[in-house]
Amino acid sequence: MLEKYVMKQNKKLRCGYTTGSCAAAAAKAAAFMLLGGSEVRRVDLMTPKRILLQLDIKDISRGEGWVSCAVEKDGGDDPDATNGLLIYARVEYREKDGKEPLFVDGGEGVGRVTLKGLEQPVGAAAINQVPRQMIREAVSEACEAYEYRGNLNITVSVPDGRRIGEKTFNPRLGIQGGISILGTTGIVEPMSEAALIKSIEVEMKVLISSGLEYLVVIPGNYGTVFSRDELRISPSRSMKCSNYIGDTIDIAMGLGVKGILFIGHIGKFIKLSGGIMNTHSRNSDCRLELLTSAALKAGAPVEMLRELLEAPTTDDGVRILKECGYLKGTMELVMDRIGFYLDHRCLGGMETEAVTFSNVYGILGQTSGAATMLERIRKS
Asked: Which of 42, 126, 356, 368 could form a disulfide with 269 if both were Cys (CB 3.0 to 4.6 A apart)?
């Protein structure tokens, strides 16, 4: 177990290690056992973050010219679908054949890339560049220790990877048949915003590589269901951004996207009307205040404003506005401000439109060019 901790939101959380670290450690142990003959029960692995891991080796098996073993994935206090999986590496001798001396590939339960836009080319195993380098460096240590100059095959496999892969973003990204072997630092930091934002960039690149110039971006599951059932947008045509509206715009600008249509629940998107580009509740919770401010500008009476300000949820606030006849005018003002702040974030460098809805009342409002962009997206 890795005894490294970070503080997040006043909580002490334990770090873990990536599938890439597991694969590299297993490959290192298998190489030492193949070349040296002695059994290895624990290995040291220096991660790119310069944190030394000491990892237990499990399920050792041998055959003529090969050794296989595994390391158990530990995500620390940020466990994901891969937590607890055994990541195997099989190292075997190979005749010289023109390939690189230490050839890394994926076996059972490691996904294969089927779409352009990912780090690895179509047809390759979903083992990212940093883990591949970690694996080669780890195996090279054994080669140097035993002065071995020949070729080796290193095959990473995850027996339960196919089933677990279906629970991840991999199918949406065009990675079929298993999980990905990932990690840029070798260490999993709990609740890493950087990792979440990076995943947004990866998914966006896949959509762009498929030829899309205008993207549908949705914070979460509510928007996915609504856009599919009410707006007739296929889930394969959209991507999620969680709370990171501003970061998503920044990424899209850097990748040359022509336009984004944001579709989201009023509970999140009301915050955009105040220029809040990270909608997580820990950053801000002024939903009813912003809704009340817009209602005030729309001419709502003081008695209704007091009731609106004390509403327990934005959906309840929408109900109050609708019953009092101020919903349309209020939402026009809300959407005008949302449009202003989205455009301000990208400095007019691309088209940004938005549609907001309530689970009870359906579409509540849209920015001025949303209908036109939606029609363009449906035809593309």
From this structure: 356
